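[09:14] KT: can someone run the structure on this one? pasting the chain below
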Amino acid sequence: MELYTFIMEYLGGTYISQVKAQDEYNAMRQWISNLNVHEIKGLTIRDKQKIIKNDFEDEEAVLIKGIKNTWHFSIRTKKGIGFVNFVMTKKN
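[09:31] RB: done, structure tokens below
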């Protein structure tokens, strides 16, 4: 299991959290599952449930060119777009 650090910009706020996962796709799934919507301005439980249900269907993680172990994706809600960067922080 690897440690991944997620940094999300959403509606003017910055939110940082970490998860452990086998790979970047599973890290994204773990991150959204663990996300506490009550700590994020404007994000609802319904938004979170929709992302989980769609299993990141519209949010493909893209490796950032020239940067090792760093990806980007976005999430879309009725209120706006969240931009998420995440980094494999520790490789075992």
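[09:33] KT: thanks! The first strand starts at residue 2 and ends at 10.
[09:34] RB: yep, looked fine to me
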